Amino acid sequence: MQTSADRKGRHQYPAHWEADVVLRDGGTARIRPITVDDADRLVSFYEQVSDESKYYRFFAPYPRLSAKDVHRFTHHDFVDRVGLAATVGGEFIATVRYDRVGADGMPATAPADEAEVAFLVQDAHQGRGVASALLEHIAAVARERGIRRFTAEVLPANTKMIKVFTDAGYTQKRSFEDGVVRLEFDLEPTDRSLAVQRAREQRAEARSVRRLLRPGSVAVVGVGRVTGGVGRSVLGNIRDAGYGGRLYAVNKAFPEDLTDVDGVPAYRCVRDIGDHVDLAVVAVPAEHVPAVVAECGEHGVQGLVVLSAGYAESGSEGRERQRALVRQARAYGMRIIGPNAFGIINTAADVRLNASLAPQLPRPGRIGMFAQSGAIGIALLSRLHRRGGGVTGVTGVSTFVSAGNRADVSGNDVLQYWYDDPETDVVLMYLESIGNPRKFTRLARRTAAAKPLVVVQGVGSAPQGHAVRATRLPPATVAALLRQAGVIRVDTITELVDTGLLLARQPLPAGPRVAILGNSESLGVLTYDRCLAEGLRPSRPLDLTTGATAEDFHGALARALADDTNDAVVVTAIPAIGEASPGDAELAEALRSAAAAVPGKPVLVVHVELGGLAEALSAAASTAPQAAEPAPGAEGGARPPHRPAGRPPTGVPETGAPTAPGTPAEGARLIPAYPAAERAVRALAEAVKYGQWRREAMDPGKVPEYDDIDEKGAARLIDELLARGEGLTVSDAETCELLGKYGIRVRRALPAPTPDAAAEAARTLGYPVALKATAPHLRHRADLGGVRLDLADEEQLRRAYAELTELFGKPEELRPVVQSMAPRGVDTVVRAVIDPAAGAVLSFGLAGAASQLLGDMAHRLVPVTDREATSLVRSIRTAPLLFGWRGSTPVDTPALEELLLRVSRLVDDHPEVVAVTLEPVVVAPHGAGVLGATLRLAPPPARDDLGPRTMPAY
């Protein structure tokens, strides 16, 4: 039924339908409603469409639009007649419209829920995925206006448009009448339509980043006429790295007769460049950037790296300048890295792009790196580049992105690129903020199933330059949710590099069993203790003594790797004195050859003052051919062989390591060396947990169905309750009723405003009973004495009532209730909240001090599968209390897991349930009883992950 609000808003411009989208080829377009002011744009657009496309649209020759056509296609009521246009540079490149029709096929109004839909795409833009994007958006608009089904009539020869409809993933019917293909499809999103949408999103966003990281030509705008300055430095860095594409220097202040700068062709503006430019690196003052963006857009530049500062990081004026920058770039279909960016790097042999402030191109390798902070980016690059002073040994980078204020391209976009990038095996990210946590966890889960994703996340407030959604979740909860998605979350840059090197160089351990061997008993014991502290299962260290030779190390390592009771080996080494002591290269070759014989288990080395050993371990494992003549400024040659994405890291080494004596043949593994036992063991522990997650992710479980759930009845009750107001805490009786719709039974509690009322309630419920004060300051506070349990008769009940009122005040202040006794068990708490940024989160812990004081709670994103419910119960530190700790009786954890799954279903099916708490939940040896429950309803937060593809709004 059409509401008065619909009728009132019939002719109002729906600004919320405007959106920027990434197209199939990586370019961008803006989608917006068509208005009466678009008549000239529509005519111009139509003139650029071929006669064939016009014929497919109108089923007859239709060379031009009449005045009546233009009026019809530009005047919409935004309810029954809607038109959308995709624009680039302010001009139409495609249109779509729907007209609501009745059962007779004639124009209609609500409650008719069917509409005819038709598209027209400019020939020059066909094949870019414009029609698919428009279909997603027009379908979302139609659903908002009460339309549930689209029909379309298409000529059989118009195979491209038929494919747009059939590939969308909606439930549809197809028929052929009078020489026309008739398609009917429901607009309700399906699992397949959502999967299609997300697959298109991944391809489009990955391609948009690829265009930035693999440009065929680069223009640096803002190159100074004298040495120094940001622009001149970046130009030199690109040139010295051996960039394989065309490079141009641009500065409007160049003399007209200047033809080159340091051998690079020079121009006064981008428009003067005769060839196409893929990427522009902008290094001019912020006030001059708009003119540069306009030049680049008009010249067809595909993307920008804006190094210029003076944007959102500088305050409110800069924030408005940043918004204008993004809007301007998107109007031309360009994507932006920055502003205030450090730059981008791609070490691939056929690219060798160093469009950054880093003075050297890093060694080529298999690690992708993302940093929002330029300073952290410098630290990461230098740490990976160094051969000493930390985790030693040669390592390498595939691609590096420092996004600065990440006004446009974010970590989510780069994750889309790395997901199926054959050059990247491990992803390292430093995130000061997460702009879209819901999308990030989705992308992280998919990426982590294919390759390791290691993240350091800032826990303070977001930097001033970052526009992020507010989240009410504490940092510990966010960290738990990231781990659920397969993210290896570490706390420091050192741990980020330590863990990344292990995952890049070695296979994943099959379990937590660790062998320790070396020539230092004390270092072995220290390593053993750290393994225990990290939850690993180490065997007693094998002491080879300080007189151990290289052969001794080789034999001990070979035996440890061959032992089926070991999943990983840590080798400890200290300097030895004596003629028989092995040299660095000799020891490295001994370890490498032993490890090569059993390639399925990881090997780590903890060394003390053995810088030469670390170098030798790295050098001995360089398997790629050495470059005959490295490019200037680089230390590596060709990239290593490709390893398919999704295969567990097997230590494919990076190129560029110096040749050392005894360099083996191809196929050797790079063994990571660490200067401290705690760093090596922490990295190994993270690899063990990640390996376990990978194995479990292969069978994530399922969300069970329960026959006794009344989803429709719950929806009706929620609608009735919300009719009272926008948001409310539901009464106890209504809470019990709503939870009951999902098979969650709350043990009955009766109010006891007087001793007589308490006695009557006890007779109704049956003894024994509990007497509880439910005032907010006493609720769930048994430690304060506000609860009396196991009251066996009326005499005990009246005595307890008198004690409570004497201690805490009048009954009206205490709000006492009488409740029948539950079986003895372990008191727990179950909570679910809907966070506007992260989505619905289910939490579990033990009631009382464990959760309130120690924060011992576990968290999972909703919907929770049966396997996740099982792991949730076992994730808290106090979980042993549920499983018979110190001889106690184990409780019914399957009943607890079922309760968690029912709560998960409730908040997933009904996002209006924005918060629910069950406390306490007494888990007994048989069954789990809910003794208290609170529930809050509100209009659900908007979810952009279920709607059409859009870029973040600016």
Topology at a glance:
Elements: H1 4-8, E1 19-22, E2 28-33, H2 39-47, H3 51-58, H4 67-74, E3 81-88, E4 91-101, E5 114-121, H5 130-144, E6 149-154, H6 159-166, E7 172-177, E8 180-186, H7 191-213, E9 217-221, H8 230-240, E10 246-250, E11 260-261, E12 264-267, E13 279-282, H9 289-299, E14 303-306, H10 316-331, E15 335-337, E16 343-346, E17 353-356, E18 364-371, H11 374-385, E19 397-402, H12 411-419, E20 426-431, H13 437-448, E21 453-457, H14 475-484, E22 488-490, H15 493-505, E23 513-518, H16 521-533, E24 537-538, E25 542-543, H17 550-562, E26 568-573, H18 584-597, E27 603-607, H19 611-620, E28 673-674, H20 677-697, H21 711-722, E29 728-729, H22 732-740, E30 749-751, H23 755-765, E31 769-773, E32 787-791, H24 794-808, H25 811-814, E33 816-820, E34 826-835, E35 839-846, H26 849-852, E36 857-861, H27 866-875, H28 893-909, E37 913-923, E38 928-930, E39 933-937
Parallel strand pairs: 5-6, 9-10, 9-13, 10-12, 13-14, 14-15, 18-19, 18-20, 20-21, 21-22, 23-24, 23-25, 23-26, 26-27, 27-28
Antiparallel strand pairs: 1-2, 2-3, 3-4, 4-5, 6-8, 7-8, 11-12, 16-17, 16-19, 29-39, 30-33, 31-32, 31-33, 34-35, 34-37, 35-36, 37-38, 37-39
